[in-house]
Design a protein that fits this description.
The complex is a heterodimer. By secondary structure, chain A is an alpha/beta fold. Helix content of chain A is about 25%, strand content about 25%. In chain A, a hairpin with a 2-residue loop joins strand 1 and strand 2. The longest helix of chain A has 22 residues. Chain B is an alpha+beta fold. Chain B is globular, with a radius of gyration of 22 Å. Chain B folds into two domains: about 50 residues, no CATH class; about 350 residues, Orthogonal Bundle (Cytochrome-c3 Hydrogenase, chain B), CATH 1.10.645.10. The chains are: A alpha/beta, B alpha+beta. At the A-B interface, strand 3 and helix 3 of A face helix 2, strand 6, strand 7, strand 8 and helix 15 of B.
Chain lengths: ~180, ~400
């Protein structure tokens, strides 16, 4: 049954590929497929240009924005993968766009100017992985305390933590 | 609290004069769990509302990288604890997509029935508690009485009322029994009467209507660009439902409508939720009469799915099968690929982005919680509202802090 619902999408995906090849002339895009999902890898140097082109190609919603630390991943050569899950509301087409980042330069432009829903998602990625987003309107940690030092979803951070919780300063009622 | 949270960049010094700041939460009866808002008020008008979240952060996603695909189901249960089984179904839907497992028809039907029961479960709480926050305690009791029946249905199938941990990779913990079918059938038969009572108490109640109509308006464009999904998006005119648009489980077999509204306000969001409950009953009625016979576990080479408990305890083959399935060095390897799979949870699109690394546990288990994106739209919804509208808007987007903070 799944093949029936995805078949009309393949023509639409091809149309998107043609459209992006035109608007992103000279930018190397690597396409792949897995379990009926289309993925594209784009260079992080052209990030905003690519995201704007994706939006112009009809992907008007950012479903999800996340990152993966590839430190212990097989024979990966890059450190971080930033994933943009895009959705076209009108025809239901999905596209998973990825880009790779390496230390020490972990700054990429913010996607909030393209989809403002990226706001909190980018803050969470910074919170957990330490990837910086420039030109973000309100850039700070989302979930963890502002004074927290580490980025806990990185693979070199232990599951049990580094004892931060036990060393939180005790604030009395008078000081609060 | 850090002072920079109070400094809204949109206001100049002149406008800021005469404003006062109110701290709302993290402990407040209307936040249900731990949410915190910093409100900038001009008299009673809300000028700016800044959410401050993270009080319930417990590192669920990090645990997802340590526990295997079957073990992590106990953690996803605790994300949106208002509709636990919807999380389990979403998690194993994504895992099965990564592993390439096709479910048996019986398992699909049972999961569909549970997914729809969970939708009613979640909507009842959302509607009931919001009406309670707005000052009406009667409707809340009607809603919670029905929720109790759903708890009993969960208990009959899984042995647990609340955190059921009922799904397994490629199947379910136990098969359902005939009396479970009777319970579901009775529930579907009785629900419309309760629905009428509830609807009569709430939806035409003048106090309720006046406190929710034109309050917390979200436009269609904002809903799309802001990532709103589920009832929140559908109330703003985005007619999109993954059950219809990306059919999973057995939804293709059933006849149901996608409920939407154009209002974009709190009342529209309640209306959509109310209508969806009746559609869920329609699906349950169709599904429960046609549950196919057969096994609940997908047939395969054996390593993907755990064996039936009766086999484990009565035969050496079953015991070996179980051993092969639970020992970390014997388990089925997941492909070294990544997959994003989403289901229509009661609150919206609940997605999982899973990266496999050749073992039976996720290298990265990202949850795409609908609450995060909805709550990030909160300050937009609050523009021009009064202080007393905060609880109405908060209730209408149904923020679950455990899912929000994970």
């Amino acid at each position: 049954m799944t093949t029936e619902t995805t078949k009309p999408n393949s023509a639409e995906i091809d149309a998107v590929k043609v459209k992006l090849a035109e608007s992103l002339n000279g930018v190397s895009l690597v396409w792949s497929e897995f379990r009926d999902q289309t993925r594209v890898v784009f260079p992080s140097t052209e990030l905003l240009k690519c995201l704007n082109a994706f939006k112009a190609a009809g992907f008007d919603q950012l479903s999800d924005l996340t990152a993966v630390d590839l430190l212990e991943y097989g024979n990966a050569t890059d450190r971080f993968e930033v994933v943009y899950c895009l959705l076209n509301i009108d025809n239901g087409l999905r596209l998973i766009a990825k880009t790779y980042l390496n230390e020490p330069d972990l700054t990429i432009p913010s996607a909030t100017s393209v989809w403002f829903g990226a706001d909190w998602l980018e803050r969470e990625v910074y919170d957990m992985y330490g990837i910086l987003f420039s030109d973000h309107p309100n850039f700070k940690r989302l979930l963890l305390p502002q004074e927290f030092q580490s980025f806990p979803m990185r693979k070199d951070y232990p599951v049990k933590g580094r004892g931060e919780r036990h060393n939180f300063p005790v604030i009395t009622r008078a000081e609060s | 609290m850090p002072l920079e949270l109070l400094e809204s960049p949109d206001l100049n010094a002149n406008q800021r004069e005469g404003l006062w700041t109110l701290n709302f939460g993290p402990q407040h009866p209307a936040t249900h769990t731990t949410l915190r808002l910093v409100l900038q008020l001009d008299g009673e008008m809300v000028i700016d509302a800044e959410p401050d979240i993270g009080f319930l952060h417990s590192g669920f996603e990090k645990l997802g990288e340590v526990l295997d695909f079957n073990q992590y189901v106990t953690i996803v249960d605790r994300m949106n604890y208002i509709s636990p089984m919807a999380n389990e179904i979403a998690w194993h839907h994504a895992v099965e997509k990564l592993l390439g497992i096709e479910l048996t028809p019986r398992c699909k039907y049972i999961r569909t029935i549970f997914a729809e029961l969970m939708r009613i479960h979640d909507h009842l709480l959302c509607l009931g508690t919001c009406v309670l926050d707005l000052g009406g305690a009667t409707a809340f009791m009607y809603a919670f009485n029905e929720r109790e029946t759903i708890y009993e249905i969960c208990e009959r199938a899984s042995g647990q009322r609340f955190h059921t941990s009922y799904t397994r990779v490629g199947g379910l913990l136990y098969d359902v029994t005939d009396d479970w079918v009777t319970m579901v059938r009775d529930f579907a038969r009785n629900f419309p009467k309760v629905y009428r009572d509830f609807s009569g108490l709430v939806m035409k109640n003048r106090i309720f209507v006046e406190r929710t109509r034109d309050v917390g308006v979200l436009s269609r464009e904002e809903a799309i660009a802001g990532g709103a999904t589920g009832p929140v998006a559908r109330a703003s005119g985005v007619v999109r439902d993954l059950r219809r648009d990306e059919p999973y489980l057995a939804y293709e077999d059933f006849d149901f409508d996608v409920c939407a509204s154009q209002g974009g306000d709190c009342y529209a969001r309640f209306q959509v939720r109310m209508m969806e409950m009746l559609e869920s009953i329609k699906i349950i009625e169709q599904a429960v009469e046609n549950i196919p016979a057969g096994p609940i576990f997908a047939p395969g080479t054996g390593k993907e799915t755990i064996p039936d408990k009766r086999e484990v305890y009565r035969s050496i083959e079953g015991l070996i099968h179980h051993f092969e399935n639970v020992m970390p060095n014997r388990q089925m390897p997941a492909p070294k690929e990544s997959v994003y799979a989403a289901t229509e949870s009661p609150n919206g699109e609940l997605g999982y982005y899973i990266v496999g690394n050749g073992s039976f546990r996720a290298y990265r288990a990202r949850t795409r919680p609908p609450s995060v994106l909805h709550f990030s739209l909160f300050s937009r919804m609050m523009r021009g509202c009064m202080l007393s509208d905060v609880v109405a808007v908060l209730g209408s987007i149904n923020i679950i802090a455990a899912e929000l903070d994970r």
